[in-house]
Amino acid sequence: SPTQRGRKPLDLAVPIPPDIPHRTFMDDVALLPAIYFVKQKFREKIRSDEVAQACGMNTFRFSRAFHATFGLTFQDYVLRYRILESCRLLRHPDACITKVAYSVGFNDASYFSRVFRRFVGTSPSAYSTEFESDDSELHLNSIRSMLRLPDAG
Q1: Residue 95 phi, psi dihedral angles, 5° rounding
Q2: 55-64 per-position pLDDT tens digit
Q3: Distance set, CA 92 to CA 9, 99, 110, 141 (Å)
Q4: Structure-derived torsion over alpha carbons of residues 131, 134, 140, 141, reported in degrees to the nearest 10
Q5: pTM summary value
């Protein structure tokens, strides 16, 4: 119709606000094997190059994509995941700190205690006593949040 010829189409493109980090969906999906890998093998030594390969990336690209997506390095993510798993184990009344340390992938119980204190704010033995037999998922979710771990199911 003749009245519509002079109209300009609306520009509906909305820019992403600067305070929201831009993460590409492709990297999110490409990094899912890394999250799964850690969930399955956190008790073992995890090499970044192996995980990068599982994600179909070279080590450099994987490192950059992981940090951009999750806001922490891959090795820091592994460390935090191990601390989260240790919190689960330390809630059992008969938990032995040294056994927990080894079972979540630490090779040195004193290093485990230092890292645990740095992230959780208390020693593993104090944590174990305070939260003994507390099976509250809400508590673990607050620990997950404090550790800045993404909820990957």
Answers
A1: -70, 130
A2: 999 999 999 9
A3: 64, 12, 20, 17
A4: -120
A5: 0.74
